[in-house]
Design goal:
Elements (H helix, E strand, L loop, with lengths): L17 H6 L2 E4 L2 E4 L4 H10 L10 H19 L4 H11 L2 E8 L2 E8 L5 H16 L4 E3 L8 E3 L12 H18 L1
Antiparallel strand pairs: 1-2, 3-4, 5-6
Helix pairs in contact: 3-4, 3-5, 4-5
């Protein structure tokens, strides 16, 4: 029997834009902090889940630089407009660039890195720039006090509050119901 290259992604929220998906490699489970990026095995899971496993290696240098990018993005998302936080993301972006290309398929763009180990983190930081251009007010943290997940609000009117209505939203509703019926 051949072993699977990585375990299933254990995170409660996947599929967000790349920058927020990287932030969501940290989460709380029953009040206990979890971190997918504690080793190269978790990095392999995230790279596969994010569709980056074909392009980047799950190794020590990539893990270290991806964690640097995650910390920089977290600081920027949690403190928008803070110069020091923005400088940290800019520092990650300094490790790559977009190169214009032209081939038989027509014009295109390709990301290039001085060191490939910066690729996943740089790609996440680049995605964050796209979210800022599109709708910065839709980059949100879950409203549940025990949740640390982030999401991009795609609701029609931009009022989504929970990472998941089935999880955090339901817990909040149940808590309000209990408080009303208890008294």
């Amino acid at each position: 029997m051949i072993a699977a290259p990585h375990a299933a992604d254990p995170r409660p929220l996947i599929g967000e834009p790349l920058s927020l998906d990287l932030l969501n490699t940290r989460w709380n489970h029953d009040g206990t902090p979890q971190d997918l990026l504690t080793g190269v095995e978790g990095l392999a899971v995230w790279l596969a889940s994010a569709g980056l496993a074909e392009r980047f290696a799950a190794d020590g240098p990539t893990l270290e630089r991806t964690r640097v990018a995650r910390d920089a993005l977290l600081a920027a998302v949690d403190g928008p407009g803070d110069g020091a936080s923005l400088a940290r993301v800019d520092g990650v972006l300094a490790h790559g660039r977009i190169r214009a290309t032209l081939d038989a398929a027509g014009p295109g763009e390709r990301a290039e890195f001085a060191e490939a180990s910066w690729g996943p983190g740089w790609s996440a930081a680049r995605d964050y720039l796209e979210l800022l251009r599109a709708a910065p007010d839709r980059i949100k943290a879950c409203a549940h006090e025990a949740c640390i997940l982030h999401f991009f609000d795609t609701s029609r009117n931009g009022t989504r509050r929970w990472c998941s209505m089935a999880a955090c939203g339901n817990r909040a509703k149940a808590s309000r119901h209990y408080a009303r019926t208890k008294g």
